[in-house]
Amino acid sequence: xxxxxxxxxxxxxxxxxxxxxxxxxxxxxxxxxxxxxxxxxxxxxxxxxxxxxxxxxxxxxxxxxxxxxxxxxxxxxxxxxxxxxxxxxxxxxxxxxxxxxxxxxxxxxxxxxxxxxxxxxxxxxxxxxxxxxxxxxxxxxxxxxxxxxxxxxxxxxxxxxxxxxxxxxxxxxxxxxxxxxxxxxxxxxxxxxxxxxxxxxxxxxxxxxx
Length: 210
What we know:
Layout: H1 3-13, H2 19-26, H3 30-38, H4 45-55, H5 59-63, H6 76-92, E1 97-102, E2 106-111, E3 120-123, H7 124-133, H8 139-169, H9 175-193, H10 200-205
Antiparallel strand pairs: 1-2, 2-3
């Protein structure tokens, strides 16, 4: 993560929900502070130290040299945050999405109450990028966006597996058996398409190219 992303994350974590409030605490103008957080400017070392002191973090934390925030190698905070968001989503939106496992690059989920569900995979990078865009002060909204994205991801990956099964079904020698198998798979694909949720919020935060 960049300095700007780390600064925003730690500011909100420290309780300064508005950037202008933190600028006042630093005794600098809002426009100067806004330059640090959203315009790519970097503070002088003395100012950087004051920011770190106020936020009760190290300058290395702000500069991204440690592993205690979203986007670094340590998964602890990422998984802790996901667990919290999924708990809210499961309670508020009647989902039952669970983390199954992780590896270096991906997180594996399963929707236990989905009509057809396999273990499906999402890259850590895509989730981290999205969570860093969403206001961390609004966990309920974030959980809703996350649950829509994960449900749609499950649906898309199930459909992909079913489409792969059509290729296998075409290898069946018996024509009647082959036709019935393909018909059953196509019926399942049409059924799964009903579960896709169109959401501009999902598209805003979980771009396809991430």
